[in-house]
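Study this pair:
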Amino acid sequence: MGFAFRIVNVFTVGDDRFSGNPLCVFEDARGLDDGQMLALARQFNLSETTFVLPSDRADARVRIFTPGFEMPFAGHPTLGTASVVAAGRERVTLEMKAGLVPVARKGDRWTLRTARGPESRPVEASREELAKMLGLETSAIAGDPRWVTTGVEQLVIPIASSEAVEKARPSPDLLFRWGFSKARDEAMAYLWAADGPEWTVRFFFTSHGAVIEDPATGSACANLGGYLLETGYPLPVSATLRQGDAVGRPSRLHLDVDAERSIFVGGSVIELGRGVIEL
């Protein structure tokens, strides 16, 4: 039996077809079981692979798999899958495990609104410990780090400058010690600095004992919006986030938080190719 898929890049920059974060979208996953979905995600070995299914609540139900586990929500899989499901329409709603996520297109930009508002909690590590974890001076930690979730929990750390963000070299052992989320069974850290016209961000996570850097992290962009809400940042907020340069995948993400406290994450999507997997 054949299963059609598309490869798209999300949060691309201009007409650069090899920018952004790659995604595999299976257009009709009926007939695939959980084990096969996970095996296909491992086969493609991208950060996420999505599987489109019928929904009686939305335009489609979407399941998101990394090569290791299923996720309730992720940003670039949501936008990339919406571009496939829409089939020329400008608005779709996707049913995720985290809830219903509306996605709209304007021009070449796809924008999602988070399914729920933020929740946050303080971190246990001190600023000194977090700075050591990141290979930075203590003065580089610019505010109060927090665990934040708008669908998937992440450690959000404000950094004093884009230069300091770019210098970060996380220690795998310390990242696992201070950046571990029991909710995700994974260690991670999202760094951001707002000292330029484009905010500089980086997202690190651990895999098999190594630190991996993500080229573009829509869920963390949403959680940054949640962080701003949780810490009383003046509203509304509109920012362009620069990510991925350090791993050769330049990406641009657009974050908006409106006066009604809704969080929006946007970016461009480019389709790179199509194919069929025979099972």
